[in-house]
Specification:
This protein has about 120 residues and is an alpha/beta fold. It contains two helices and eight strands. It has one domain: 2,3-Dihydroxybiphenyl 1,2-Dioxygenase, domain 1. It has helices at about 15-25, 70-80, and strands spanning about 5-10, 30-35, 40-45, 45-50, 60-65, 85-95, 100-105, 115-120. Helix 1 (about 15-25) runs antiparallel to helix 2 (about 70-80).
Length: about 120
């Protein structure tokens, strides 16, 4: 099974767009479209992740993005902190998941736990 896309409401579109734009630049997922109510990130004209103000933000949730290298995890974490995210777990091995699970966690502007993980 593949996930087609992820989308959810945010409190402040400009703030959240800036946050996600900066972390997705570090992960290679550009902003592909935006309006007064939404911002979409993706590739080849296809939205993979979007945020909007058409409905209230959901309660806190967790999203993990799998990346190819540990350096990408580190870049994600640096970009997220520079964009105003709050540290929720510095880059490192998470042995309780597996001996090679290298991940970093940040809280986005709405308090959602956003993760980047490299399994190698």
């Amino acid at each position: 099974m593949k996930v087609a896309h992820i989308g959810f409401g945010v409190k402040d579109l400009a703030r959240s767009k800036d946050f996600y734009k900066r972390i997705f630049e570090a992960l290679g997922l550009p902003l592909i479209d935006e309006s007064e109510q939404s911002a979409r990130f993706g590739a080849d004209g296809r939205a993979l992740f979007y945020i909007h103000t058409r409905e209230a933000p959901p309660g806190p949730f967790h999203v993990a993005f799998e990346v190819e290298t540990r350096e990408a995890v580190d870049a994600f974490h640096r970009a997220a902190l520079a964009a105003g995210g709050r540290d929720n777990g510095a880059p490192g091995i998470r042995k309780h998941y597996s001996p090679t699970y290298y991940a970093a966690f940040v809280l986005d502007p709405d308090g959602h736990n956003i993760e980047a993980v490299c399994r190698g």
